[in-house]
Amino acid sequence: MSINLDSPIAYLKGVGPKRAELLKEELGIFTVFDLLQHLPFRYEDRSVFYRIADIEVESTAFQFRGKIVKKALVGAKRASRLLAVFHDGVDSLELVWFKGANRILNQLPLNVEVVVYGKPSNYGGKWQLAHPEVEKVEAYENRRGGGFHPVYSTTEKLSSRGLNSSGLARLIRVAVDEVKGEIGETLPDHLLSELRLPRRREAFEEVHLPSSPLEADKALKRLRFEELLYLQLVLLQHKKTVTVDLRGVKFGQVGERFNEFFSKHLPFELTGAQKRVLREIRADMNTGHHMNRLLQGDVGSGKTIVALMSALLAIDNGYQACIMAPTEILSRQHAEGISDLLKEMDIRVEIITGSTKKKDRIPILEGLADGSVNLLIGTHSLIEPSVVFKNLGFAVIDEQHRFGVAQRSKLWAKANPPPHVLVMTATPIPRTLAMTAYGDLDTSVLDELPPGRKEIKTVHRTDGGRLKVMAFVEKQIAEGKQVYMVFPLIEESATLDYKDLMDGYESVSRRFPLPKYRIGIVHGKMKPADKDIEMKRFVRGESQILVATTVIEVGVNVPNATLMIIESSERFGLSQMHQLRGRVGRGGDQSYCILMTKDEFSKEARRRLETMCRTNDGFVIAEVDMEIRGPGDILGTQQSGLPDLKMADLLRDRDLMTTARYMAQRVLEEDPSIELPVHKTLRVNLDRIKKDRPNWSRIS
Ligand code: ADP
Ligand code: MG
């Protein structure tokens, strides 16, 4: 029976039902085409042959040429293993298999020229190769590229069934042979020639049966690019349906309130970046289409004022606005700060959080329904069904990484047409990731800090340096500054962490005793009201040190705080530390961050600490974070709407992604519905891909 690209993998010669099941489970390979898309992750040069006599130490793998002169199963049933003697014309060594001995016994060619590849180990004074790769010289020589081998990722289970890298290679070669005639082109000719990419059929052949390092590399690039291009086409088309194709309220005028605020109440000059972003937002809100924009700005870059002034635009046009923040503390702070900025203006600002009492809620809800509340601030409580707006025109979601996709869609349902949405995040996302996970959002970047900000000096100290650190704390306080001291709090060890926190609090209290010093403490187990009291004290400067868990991570603004001490910092993630550090350096004074650790910590922790000490740039930190944790983890599990990619990789193929984005944009600009004859290939494949990969269009 002949097979095709879509045939179940079990139909491929050499697979069978058991291996097919394993391939599905272990690698997600269902069809022959899935197998072809399992690309090598590197290539190995196997053109050099050694003599057995060349082996000196146990180290890397060697390749030999010779004959197997003897083979036999030895040992009783369970302990049975396959032993073979390999002779290179001068010397001989032993080959041994502990797994799959029976199967291999039959396959092992006797007395014909073979190529043997494996890692020598010294066994009782003699060299031995355990589980070597064996191939007839004839096959080795007939394959193009000869000694240039693809290496595939595989798993323990697959390897034990003979599907290690070379086992997979064998299968894949069979598959390529059988179906290559069917592999059709998916990229238009003009793109292929512009980007100098090989054709698809050749590319698949080349990656699996490489002829040279250079050609294989080009072929890999071609296949990965193709996948990314289609991904970007899907995302950009989706973006169009949620913006251009979707009616949005039009904020035609820059009205009284915006102008009044700008000329009379704005407490500082806007940075160039803030002005630019405001222009981008204004332009978006004036098109009659729906705005869906991501604002990325490092901690302290001044996102709040951008949100507020955009809200004024909505209010000036007769609409309501809301700002949603992830925590109670942060909502309060926004509400207080914004009310203060607007105090001389005729704008009604209200706040709703989880702890807003029913009796306080009622008048607010009434005000929302009759339109007298202009701006609502709050936690996710404000997307509850009971909160009904008269005409919500604009919604800000602050610190988006804590808001799920489902919540965003609830927000959409609050008005018809849905409100313009501005998503703000201080956890910069690497650019290529933003293009993917938030591929359907427009992005703005606040890449400039307000003037006068100084780099936060960051150092790493171990417990041995604690006395000096405390002396520094004392000095800062003597200068009238305030200090944060943050402890980790991680679910699994919550009790232990809690003890650490309390111990820390006590020892600091002893070192900085009342009445001269006052130390606050904030943690997740406290009642919101108590937390609030402590926070307020610190904000008002009544306490000099705030001992806390990461509850203060996002947004909190106390410009007089100049020192952030992160305890057990080896346990913090990069973006979390960066967020925490962003709590200081918010005024004009030189600020500091001290990363405390034990004497020993992991290599990854070291990389994080070094990165923190080296840079204050959130975007640089985000890139390193992505390298350490991988793209999925940095978006968080809650909403990691990452596409399933078979050939490309978000981390490795960052540059290709940028090219793919650009090319996809260009295609859609020329031909928004992808209907021109030159794009026929794209059209056909796009339709197929949307069916095959529904997850691509559901991202974000
Ligand atoms: P984030 O982007 O981290 O949310 P905020 O909006 O909280 O930053 O702003 C941080 C601090 O910088 C606030 O105290 C704010 O008043 C101040 N700020 C914002 N923009 C400017 C500016 N253009 N000039 C001076 N200070 C500014
Ligand atoms: Mg903020």
Characterise this structure:
The chain has 700 residues and is of the alpha/beta class. Helix content is 41%, strand content 17%. The chain contains 25 helices and 22 strands. A seven-stranded mixed beta sheet has the order 6-7-4-3-2-5-8. A seven-stranded parallel beta sheet has the order 12-13-11-14-15-10-16, sandwiched between helices. β19, α19 (528-539) and β20 (545-548) form a beta-alpha-beta unit. The site of adenosine-5'-diphosphate has 18 residues, from α12.
CATH superfamily of the largest domain: P-loop containing nucleotide triphosphate hydrolases
CATH class of the largest domain: Alpha Beta
Question: What would the principal axes of the Cα set say about the shape?
Answer: globular
Helix-strand category: alpha/beta
Can you tell me the number of structural domains? 4
What is the CATH topology assignment of the largest domain?
Rossmann fold
The hetero compounds bound to this protein are:
adenosine-5'-diphosphate, magnesium ion
For the terminal residues, how far apart are their CA atoms? Answer: 43 Å
Largest sheet: 7 strands, mixed
Strand order in the sheet with the most strands: 6-7-4-3-2-5-8
Number of strand segments: 22
The second-level CATH architecture of the largest domain is: 3-Layer(aba) Sandwich
Low-confidence stretches: none
Average pLDDT, all residues: 89
Number of helical regions: 25
What share of the residues does DSSP label as strand, in percent?
15-25%
